[in-house]
Amino acid sequence: MKIGIIGAGAMGSGIAQVAAQNNNQVKIFDTQKEALEKADKKLRKTLEKLTAKGKFTQEKSDEIIANISYVNSLNNFSDSDLIIEAIIENLEIKKSVFQKLESIVSENCILASNTSSLSIASIAAACQKSERVIGIHFFNPAPIMKLVEIIPAIQTVSSITEQAKNIIDSWGKITVLAKDTPAFIVNRVARPFYGEAIKMLEEDVADAATIDWAMTEIGGFRMGPFTLMDFIGHDVNYPVTETVFEAFYYDQRYRPSFTQKRLVEAGYLGRKSGRGFYNYNENAEKIEPNKDTRLGNKIVDRIVTMLINEAADALYLNVASRDDIDLAMTKGVNYPKGLLQWADEIGIDNCVDILDELFDEFHDTRYRCSPLLRKMSKQGKTFYE
Ligand SMILES: NC(=O)c1ccc[n+]([C@@H]2O[C@H](COP(=O)([O-])OP(=O)(O)OC[C@H]3O[C@@H](n4cnc5c(N)ncnc54)[C@H](O)[C@@H]3O)[C@@H](O)[C@H]2O)c1
């Protein structure tokens, strides 16, 4: 197929590599010439490494490079079958690009956006043929992360959704279907992983090192929430939380924290600036966690139950199917197991009890139990047979 990629940054260059690896002819456009040059250099370096490791033959690596061309105008996209936009996260700019594209591409070209936070409906609205616009949301780094969320807008026709899904499946990715709602599946359901951890830190339930220890050693997560936030960077993670909070009409479940905001304001952005929740300077004292198993279990139960509540609510509100929600969290953010499967293991009754206890304690609507969990508890149902 002929694939067009707009934006040669972190996401665009990664998506181009995935498409090229799968024998498609790929063209990438970026308004910054340097971004194209950087993408080309980065790809060559990556392929060199992968070839040295034996992941690709030299022939395959040459083929991938030959499959990609770097172009200096959108007009080069006239013969594209699918275009994936991965430019700056700004609705007005994205809309103007989609509008322009429509005057260039053929009738049958699918127009997709890799946006993380904007509504697909608003981007599609910029097009006359809005029924061919869809969200195709890759995760970073695109060549490594298996999950891709497919997000039809209310304008999108089902044949486009099917085609988009088939194409991305054929690239060896795992696709899940998400409703065009804020943060789609992964970035919505994952909010309590950060938010509830910070809230417990603020309440002095435990320090960051102890919460991280509990979540990795007892919970089985690959990284603890504070290590992960420091790794992502608070300048990236905090604005996402703020955007999601606004997009959900200030639902308290998604409330950002002053603690994280202060880190951003202080320039303590995490690993990249040498300091975040942790101090990464060479001489910094290493903080030892309190490995009290009872405390650890309490931490894990609270964060995991909040995650389960979010997953259950996403199912209740038809954001995605049971299987897609569980797949999204295991393949998109490497959770040790699907949250709905985890709910069955913990017991739906127990999840409801933990949430109700938190609600009783705080009288904060962030702890309201999903109606689905409550109903299932009353009926003695489980998510899986
Ligand atoms: N970085 C992530 O983790 C991640 C993950 C999933 C989705 N996304 C989404 O992907 C998109 C791109 O993110 P990124 O991290 O790759 O950004 P980035 O800043 O690394 O790259 C964006 C590129 O777009 C180019 N650009 C800006 N305006 C343009 C225009 N009008 N036409 C052509 N090129 C233009 C820039 O020059 C830049 O090279 C955003 O919508 C973001 O929300 C990002």
Indicate the topology:
Blueprint: E1 2-6, H1 10-21, E2 25-29, H2 33-52, H3 58-67, E3 68-71, E4 82-85, H4 91-102, E5 110-113, H5 120-124, E6 133-138, E7 147-152, H6 158-170, E8 174-177, H7 186-189, H8 191-202, H9 208-218, H10 225-232, H11 234-247, H12 258-266, H13 293-316, H14 322-332, H15 339-346, H16 348-362, H17 371-379
Parallel strand pairs: 1-2, 1-4, 2-3, 4-5, 5-6, 7-8
Antiparallel strand pairs: 6-7
Helix pairs in contact: 8-13, 9-13, 10-11, 13-15, 15-16, 16-17
The structure holds nicotinamide-adenine-dinucleotide (NAD).
Could you give a quick summary of the protein structure above?
The protein has 385 residues and is an alpha/beta fold. It has helices at 10-21, 33-52, 58-67, 91-102, 120-124, 158-170, 186-189, 191-202, 208-218, 225-232, 234-247, 258-266, 293-316, 322-332, 339-346, 348-362, 371-379; strands at 2-6, 25-29, 68-71, 82-85, 110-113, 133-138, 147-152, 174-177.
